[in-house]
Specification:
This protein has helices at residues 2-19, 28-38, 45-57, 65-82, 99-102, 105-125, 133-147, 152-162, 169-193, 200-227, 230-233, 239-242, 248-252, 254-271, 280-291; strands spanning 92-93, 96-97. It is an all-alpha fold. It has one domain: Farnesyl Diphosphate Synthase, CATH 1.10.600. The protein has a two-stranded antiparallel ribbon. The longest helix has 28 residues, at 200-227. The protein is globular, with a radius of gyration of 18 Å. The relative contact order is 0.12.
Amino acid sequence: MEGLLREYQQRIETVLDHWLQPPTTHPASLHQAMRYSAMDGGKRIRPILVYATAKALGVPLSCVDGPACAVELIHVYSLIHDDLPAMDNDDLRRGRPTCHKAFDEATAILAGDAMQALAFQILVTDPEMTEDPKVRLRMMEILARASGSRGMAGGQAIDLASVGQQIDLVQLEDMHIHKTGALIRASVLLGALSLVEIDEVRLEKLDRYAKCIGLAFQIRDDILDVESDTETLGKPQGSDMAQNKPTYPALIGMEASKQRARELVDDALESISPLGPDADLLRFVARYIVERIH
């Protein structure tokens, strides 16, 4: 499975390279900033989930290259903006200076804006995707909802408002379901909808899987912020604690946080049990999420 994971990571690098403008394209500094942030590696969990879902349903990977690229561009744009001084004010991302440090704040903001726009351009124009306009529109709706005020942007707003505040577990989970979970859920749904004739039962099971691993992913992030180090993480270790952000370990303790993540993964695996061996990569990704070290 690790070999397949690397194969999909390499595949999305190629797809990103195809859709992003060359660094010499006018205005050069903007396109260089977009490539700097999008082509710097990373786990590529979200596009991998698009590919793994397509594989589980027997959909050719070429049909989901567009959705996989779109969801990764949205993710990268969110990282650029989250790192800004007005947001989390981070200097490192994936072991390198953040976009606003490598370029400047204005260029970083514009690079994020441009990647968000490119994501939806891809869903409209990619010739390899389904030709069904209703499916394309549904994909766009899902990605827009996951990115907006009821998804990722809303989660970041809740996160910023929660700094230094006492919140309970329900409020913490609500924040993470929006900030991290929404885009992970969208990744799986975009892969699932690439099978135009997918039935609602399978769609609901995959959606449940995605909800569970999305929350488990953020819990693991909270754990790593305490247990890991800056070199391994590729970003400042302990930044959540330094900014007095609410986290799972701070709220319920380390062992309870790890147990909650394991329970969520068990629920996710149960949800996709009817899909058989074709869904083995989805199972591998779910386990990877609670075992990863960065």
